[in-house]
Amino acid sequence: MRRTGSFLGLVGLILLFFGAASYLLTGVLEPYSAIHLIVGTVLIVVYLAGSFRDLGELLSARSTRYGANMVLYSVLFVALLVGVNWWGAQHNERFDLTEESVYTLAPQARQVLEGLDQDLVFQAFLEGGHDPTVERLLDSFKTSSPHVKVELVDPELQPEVTQRYEITAYGTVRVAYGEQATTVAQPTEESLTNALIKVTRAKEQTIYFVQGEGEPSIDDAQSADGYAQAKKDLENEQYRVEPLVLIQEGKVPDAADVLVLAAPARPLNAHEIEAIDVYLAAGGHAMILLPPRTGTELAPTLAKYGVVLGNDVVVDQVVRIFEGPALGLNPIVETYGAHPITEGLRERTIFPLTRTVTPGESKPGLTVTSIAKTSVSSWAETNLDALFEQSVATLEETDQGGPVSIGVASTAELEELGLGKGQARLVVYGTAAFANNQYLNTLFNRDLFLNSVGWLGGQEELVSIRPRTLRASRVQFSRDEATAIFYLSVLIVPEILLVLGLAVWWRRSRL
Amino acid sequence: MRNVFAIAGREFRSIFTSPIAYVVLTGFLLLGGWFFFNLVARFNLLVSLYSSFQQMGDASAQLNLNEMVLAPLFQNLAVVLVILVPMITMRSFAEEKRTGTYELLLTSPVGTGQIVVGKFLGAAGFIAIMVALTSIYGLILAAYGNPEIGVMAAGYLGLLLLAITFVAVGLFASSLTENQIIAAVTGLVMLLLLFVIAWPADSLPETPGAILRYLAVTEHFGQMVTGIIDTKSLIYFASMIVGGMFLTQRSVESVRWR
Amino acid sequence: MIEVHELTKRYGDRVAVESISFTAEKGRVLGFLGPNGAGKTTTMRMLTGFLPPSSGTARVAGYDVATQSDEVRRRIGYLPENPPLYPEMTVRSYLTFVARLKGVPRAHLAAARDRAIERMGLTDVAGRLLAHLSKGYKQRVGLAQALVHEPEVLVLDEPTIGLDPRQIIEIRGLIRGLAGERTVILSTHILPEVSQLCDKVVIINEGRIVCEDLRENLTRNASLEEVFLRSITRDTAAREAEATV
């Protein structure tokens, strides 16, 4: 009877163990776990009840006291180990032994992370919920701050989350910090760090798009010329986007962090020009997109900030990636100026129907940089009549040969220039089509557009971080050396050990 | 301390005089050499393939010995250790119980802690030599090529810590029984569990998942192989070793209050 | 030298040794006599500190086996039923190892080992592996390891079991040589061994002591065989009587 009792007790313990393990693993009380837990408990109770009369005796026995001490001691020891590990996990230090510190965040990123005061959540939308590269990347963020949380989302399994944030591509990472959030389509240390900077920046910026003179509408999602896509992308980056009918308002609102004027179909009137003038002179930030034959009335204003509009169209007949007009009016840009906007941008962008925009003569207080240049094979066609009416473009003596500048960024220290106070920023491109619904998501136009807005909005913090990898390495040996290595590693070493073992055995067998 | 060294020395010599030690050593280095040679051959094939295609020049610039030869080599060796370490540790207590020398140890003026530490040191010494012998692969790569030495060193440290942790676990398995086969199989199962315990982590809520992941030896070892030494991992390995020895000591001591 | 008082060992609900008390004087040989499974080995294991007693006390050389186990173990040489030999070691290295374990100072290790080898007549086989020794030699090595550290008390569990007659005679001779300088407890179920070696006899049956006396007293009126049988029978009868009540 007693033996049966202890057998039942042991079975009870096993059942309890398996029941608890399955409950912990599945997290739900399934019949399997429930039955195990109940039956296990019952068996143990039966065992205890059966041995109850021995309990008093048991408690006084030396071995029991000894055993109880041991149990207590063991529990304390395990608790100590757990405690040390818990503490160690909170206060860990990583040593990155790779030569280029591949797994360590750049100082810029670490600086931002140290400033966090609430949780920063990275949601990675990965195929099957996994992608070692992305995970490793996020992990390096996670280990740098206790505030960083990482969630891996399998879009197949959580379509609702994926839909809510309008995630369309695997590998996208959504970065959320409090109310702010942004998405990164191609996560790299650089892009994630920049997203981080964006979402942790407290103030929401407002961008006004000038409307009223036939500019493409920011609500027009239908036509190729519309700017609805640009609006959406900006909103994804936590900007507020508002239309501004300048002719009604009479002035640019003070709240405008960036003013965008894109392709007015009719010439602006004097009031409108003055409003822009005043805005800039008060330290405004404007992006002005003027395709050929538009906006000549703005030339004096732009000239004050060192920007010169060319009365021409850039033709590039060699690069025909997109079999567009045979004229070659969609120049591709591959070379960028040294400027925060284009730092780190190495990919191509396309500028449909663009004029040249070049830096004017330099003045103290003005920093004007050409940020986009077309290829060597392009030129600026000045014979616009022939081009537009006869569709003919030929490189003549008077035409400026490529590469030509089609985008300019200007920083103006207003006090030095005698225009006002503070600093004005201006980005001018010779086309408006590069950011419209049709072209914004072509090549890397979106990046260039958003970078431009970002710089105008004063996000110098945005950084460029060189991607780092393990150094490429090689191993080279001649044929003979390869053979020798094969013999050494595969054959000779095990052979020596085998002979050694045999020798030991042989020597000992005679002792 | 004197007792510890006496026991450790005897254990160490006893392992080296047993045929199974040489079988294990030979097997380990045979497999290691085979992995190493084939990984190097595959690596050089990839390099020549990539560089013969112009457009893949970029990809070829990324190829490196650490990721393509050493990391898989370490991972494979770790799996082999899962099987071989219990073969070495299975004897330590089970054999003594079977032959009766256990009684000699326990009736000597030696603490059970000293016995466990001594036996651990003996077995760990053997396993450390086994791992040290695999450094010829690293030396060959360093002599004929240019791997990142830091990453390689972290990998070897990880492999050594992993192996020594395995010894502590194997020792515990051996202390539970007087049957060597049972000791080996128990040890093997425990080590495999340490290897795969993180598998359900992704489908679990965050905290249990994180705990399972932390418990898995692969998590810490894998990180070290990529060249990161985290104090967290060092604490983990130290805890597993100390914890394994503690359980072993408990198990030895339990004779006293059964 | 050895005082055992109401020593009891229970395994779960089975009582292996029940409240036994006896004493062994310094320099004497005490024979522990009993049928197989009487509790001889358990008693010896408790005396040597291998097993903790469930209750009761045992003092060896003045030290309690439960609370001063280390002191006791330092002073005891123990030969279990199976000599605790590492088959892969040579006699010499084995005895050195045991001497170290037993706390012989480093400077005296070699001397202690050589003394034990000489005394047990192991000189010829000192370099051989234990695995390659004959049963008799193994038993001698077992004895050698028990006294390599010159203990005050020797506990020998069935020292002659499984040996051939010539080996038995040799081992008995060796044990007789040890008596006088140290206290020896030896267990056996072979009666002539007791009459040849022991000064005092304790007869144990099913965990209880049924007889404890000097050998001369026991064998004065009857042969040891008769005493033994009488004690065992009386005890068995008493138990049956107890059980029926």
Could you describe the 3D structure shown?
The complex is a heterotrimer of chains A (511), B (258) and C (245). With 511 residues, chain A is of the alpha/beta class. Chain A has 4 domains: 2-90, no CATH class; 107-184, Glutaredoxin (3-Layer(aba) Sandwich), CATH 3.40.30.10; 203-456, Rossmann fold (3-Layer(aba) Sandwich); 474-511. Chain A contains 16 helices and 19 strands. Chain A has helices at residues 2-26, 31-50, 52-60, 62-90, 107-114, 132-142, 159-164, 189-200, 228-236, 246-249, 270-281, 299-304, 384-390, 414-417, 445-456, 479-509; strands at residues 94-96, 120-125, 148-153, 172-177, 180-184, 205-211, 239-245, 258-262, 285-289, 307-309, 313-315, 332-336, 349-350, 357-359, 366-374, 379-381, 400-401, 405-413, 423-429. In chain A, a hairpin with a 2-residue loop joins strand 4 (172-177) and strand 5. Chain A is elongated. The mean pLDDT of chain A is 83. By secondary structure, chain B is mainly α. Chain B has one domain. Chain B contains 12 helices and 1 strand; from the N terminus they run H-H-H-H-H-H-H-H-H-H-H-E-H. Chain B is globular. Chain C is an alpha/beta fold. Chain C has a single domain (2-82, 154-244), classed as Rossmann fold (3-Layer(aba) Sandwich), CATH 3.40.50.300. Chain C has helices at residues 40-47, 69-75, 91-101, 109-119, 135-147, 165-178, 191-197, 215-219, 224-244, and strands at residues 2-11, 14-24, 29-33, 55-60, 63-64, 76-79, 153-157, 183-188, 200-205, 208-214. In chain C, the strands form 2 sheets. Chain C has a 6-stranded mixed sheet, with helices on both faces. In chain C, strands 2-1-4-5 form a 4-stranded antiparallel sheet, covered by helices on one side. In chain C, helix 3 packs across helix 4 (109-119) and helix 4 packs across helix 5 (135-147). Chain C is globular. Chain C starts with a strand and ends with a helix.
